[in-house]
Design brief:
Radius of gyration: 17 Å
Number of helices: 7
Strand content: 15-25%
Structural class: alpha/beta
Shape: globular
Length: about 230
C-alpha cells in the first residue's frame, strides 16, 4: 500500500502542466497557456516566452518552468508563443505584419515599418486573445521575454525592488528604456495598477542551460515575494 502511495505521488509530480487554448493566430494556430500549480491559487504569475517571432530564446524558460513546483498559493501561467505565426516564420511581426507589442490599446499610436502597430489598437486576434486572458486571470506579475539587449527593463508603474530582484537572481543588469506605445506591459500596468508587468530582454541567440536555470530561479524568486 505504501509503495502504491509513493508511486501515485511521483506520478502527480511528473504530470504535465494542464494546457488551454486561449485564442488563435491570424493563420489559425493555437495560443496555448499552461497552468503550473494550484489553479485556485490567490496569486498568479504570467510568463510569456515569445511575442516577437524572431526572439524565441524565452521559450526555453517557459518550457523549463513547466516542471517546477511554485510556492504555495501561487500559480504560473506559461505562454510559450504569443505570436505563433511569427515564431513559425521567424519574423518579428504576426502574419499581417503587425508588431503585437505595439498593438495593445494604451498609448497606442500609428507606427510603420518594422514596428507597424496595426490599423487600430487591438486589431490583431493574438492581441485580443491575450487581453481577454489577462483581464480574466488578472496576474499579479507578468514577465514578457524579448531579445537582444540583455537586461531587465525597469517598467514604469511596476514594483522596482521586484524587478531588480529578478535581475539580481538572473545575473542580469536592470535599466530603463523608452516607453513603448501600445506595449503589452505598459497596457497591463494601466489596466491593473496594483500588478507589475515588465519585459526581460535576453541576450542574442539561444540561451545556454545555466541562463535558463538562472531565469527559472528568478521567476521563482518573484513568486516567493507575492
Amino acid at each position: 500500500m505504501r509503495r502504491s502511495l509513493v508511486l501515485f505521488a511521483v506520478l502527480l509530480l511528473s504530470a504535465p502542466a494542464a494546457a488551454d487554448t486561449i485564442g488563435r493566430s491570424v493563420r489559425g494556430r493555437p495560443i496555448v497557456v499552461r497552468h503550473v500549480g494550484d489553479r485556485a491559487a490567490a496569486r498568479r504569475i504570467l510568463v510569456v516566452g515569445c511575442i516577437h517571432g524572431n526572439e524565441r530564446a524565452g521559450i526555453a524558460v517557459t518550457r523549463a518552468l513547466r516542471s517546477v513546483t511554485p510556492p504555495h498559493g501561487v500559480e504560473l501561467l506559461l505562454v510559450d508563443r504569443a505570436n505563433p505565426d511569427g515564431a513559425a516564420a521567424g519574423t518579428r511581426a504576426n502574419a499581417r505584419g503587425v508588431d503585437l507589442n505595439r498593438n495593445f490599446p494604451w498609448r497606442w499610436r500609428h507606427l510603420g515599418g518594422v514596428y507597424y502597430s496595426g490599423p487600430r489598437p487591438g486589431s490583431e486576434p493574438e492581441t485580443r486573445a491575450l487581453r481577454r486572458f489577462i483581464l480574466r486571470e488578472r496576474p499579479d506579475v507578468s514577465i514578457w521575454f524579448h531579445q537582444h539587449m540583455d537586461f531587465v527593463i525597469l517598467q514604469r508603474g511596476s514594483d522596482g525592488p521586484l524587478m531588480r530582484d529578478y535581475a539580481r537572481v538572473a545575473h542580469m543588469r536592470a535599466g530603463h528604456y523608452p516607453q513603448v506605445p501600445g506595449g503589452a506591459p505598459r497596457w497591463e500596468n494601466h489596466v491593473m495598477p496594483a500588478a507589475s508587468a515588465f519585459a526581460v530582454e535576453l541576450a542574442a541567440g539561444a540561451l545556454p542551460a545555466w541562463r535558463v536555470r538562472a531565469n527559472v530561479r528568478a521567476v521563482l524568486a518573484v513568486a516567493q515575494r507575492l
